[in-house]
Design brief:
Blueprint: E1 2-6, E2 13-17, H1 21-24, H2 26-32, H3 34-49, H4 54-77, H5 88-110, H6 112-115, H7 117-122, H8 129-155, H9 167-191, H10 195-209, H11 221-227, H12 231-244, H13 252-276, H14 280-283
Antiparallel strand pairs: 1-2
Helix pairs in contact: 3-8, 4-5, 4-8, 5-8, 5-9, 5-10, 5-12, 9-12, 9-13, 12-13
C-alpha cells in the first residue's frame, strides 16, 4: 500500500493507493479532482478565446453564415415550411445552436486524450475529466449563440412563451447527448487513430440528416419515430419548443425515444471508456 499526502494551505487531502482502490473510489475521485477539471476547462477556453479575435468572431460568423445558407437552400429553393408563424431564419438558428454545440464538443473531445499525453502518462487522475472538461468550451459558443438569438428575436419582433424558462433543461440534455458519443469516440480514437478522419465526415453527414436546416415535421409521419433514433433530433426539437413556443409542438413519442437513446449512449460511453481507461497511458 502506498500513501500519498498533499497539504494545501487551507486543507489536507490524503489519497491512498491500494489494490482495487481505483475501481471502488473512482466516482469519489472525480469529485476530489474537481479543481483539475476547472483548470483544464479554463485552459481550453483560454486557448480558444484569449488574445485572439477570430475565436470570438468565429463563434458568431459560423452560425450566422450557416443560418443564411440553410435558409436560402431550404426556404427559398426547396420551399420547406417553417414552424408555425416563426421566421424561417429564426427556426434554423435555434436548431443550429444545439447542433454546433454537439459537433464542436464531439470534435474537440475526440482528440482530447491524445493532446494531453504528457499528463496521462505521468499523473494519476480519473481520465474521464479530460474529455468532459473539453466539452465546456462548447458552452461558451452556446452562450454567444444565445446572445445572437436574442438579437434575432428582437429584430423579428418574436416573443417567446413561458416554455423558454425550461431551456436550461434542454441545454443539460444537449450536454448528455454529447457526452455519451464523445466518451466512446475518444476512447476509440486512442486505439484507432483513423477515427480522426472519420469524425469530420460523420459530422458533415449528420448536419443533413438532423433537422437543423428544416423542421422535423417535414419527415413523413410513418418514418418520424424511426427518425427520432437520432438523439440530436429530440434535443433540437426541444430547443425549438422552448424558444418558438406553440409554433413548434413536441412530438412526444419521438422525444421520449430520443431520451432513451441518449441514456443508452451515455451508459455505453461511460462503460467503454472505463473499460479501456487503464490502457490509455500504454497505448498513447
Amino acid at each position: 500500500m502506498t500513501e500519498i499526502s498533499t497539504h494545501p494551505a487551507a486543507s489536507s487531502v490524503q489519497i491512498i493507493l491500494e489494490p482495487g482502490r481505483i475501481e471502488k473510489n473512482y466516482w469519489r475521485d472525480l469529485w476530489n479532482y474537481r479543481e483539475l477539471f476547472e483548470v483544464l476547462a479554463w485552459r481550453d477556453v483560454s486557448v480558444r478565446y484569449k488574445q485572439t479575435v477570430i475565436g470570438v468572431a468565429w463563434a458568431i460568423i459560423r452560425p450566422v453564415l450557416s443560418m443564411m445558407i440553410f435558409t436560402f437552400v431550404f426556404a427559398r429553393l426547396a420551399k420547406l415550411p417553417s414552424e408555425g408563424k416563426a421566421p424561417y431564419a429564426l427556426m434554423v438558428f435555434v436548431g443550429m445552436l444545439p447542433w454546433i454545440f454537439f459537433s464542436t464538443a464531439l470534435s474537440d473531445a475526440s482528440n482530447s486524450l491524445i493532446s494531453n499525453v504528457n499528463l496521462i502518462s505521468k499523473v494519476y487522475f480519473p481520465r474521464l475529466i479530460i474529455p468532459t472538461a473539453t466539452i465546456i468550451v462548447g458552452f461558451v459558443d452556446l452562450l454567444i449563440g444565445f446572445g445572437i438569438m436574442a438579437v434575432m428575436m428582437f429584430w423579428y419582433h418574436f416573443r417567446p412563451g413561458l416554455q423558454i424558462l425550461l431551456l436550461p433543461v434542454f441545454v443539460l440534455l444537449a450536454f448528455l447527448a454529447t457526452l455519451g458519443p464523445s466518451l466512446w469516440i475518444t476512447a476509440l480514437n486512442v486505439k484507432y487513430r483513423d477515427f480522426r478522419y472519420v469524425i469530420p465526415f460523420m459530422l458533415q453527414l449528420g448536419v443533413y440528416v438532423s433537422p437543423v436546416g428544416f423542421s422535423s415535421k417535414v419527415v413523413p409521419e410513418k418514418w418520424r419515430l424511426l427518425y427520432s433514433l437520432n438523439p440530436i433530433v429530440g434535443v433540437i426539437d426541444g430547443f425549438r419548443w422552448c424558444v418558438l413556443s406553440g409554433d413548434s409542438p413536441l412530438y412526444m413519442p419521438g422525444f421520449l425515444l430520443s431520451l432513451c437513446v441518449i441514456a443508452l449512449f451515455v451508459w455505453v460511453g461511460i462503460v467503454y471508456f472505463r473499460r479501456t481507461e487503464q490502457s490509455f497511458a500504454d497505448i498513447i
